[in-house]
Amino acid sequence: MSQPYNYYPQPSYQPPINQPYPTLYRPQIPQGPSPVPYDPAAYSTHPHISTPRPHRHRRRESTPSAAAPPPLKSALKKTNTYTATPGPQPPIEFPITRPRSNSFSQQPHGFTRPRVYSNSAYPQNDIIYPSREEEFTPLHMFLSFHGYNELHLEGITELALKELRSKIWNRWADGIESDTVDNHRCIVRFKNAPWDMGGPKHLLALKLILELFSLCAQRGYAFQTSVNIGTPSPRLIFQVLAPDLTSQFFVAYFSQGGRRLTLINPPGHIDLSIGAMLKDVLRSRISADYVVDENIRVIEVRKKAGGFTGAEVEPAHFLMHVLKIISNLGFQLDAAIPLLRRGQLGMRSSREILIFKGSNPG
Question: Residue spans with biased composition (Low complexity) (predicted)?
Answer without folding.
Answer: 1-11
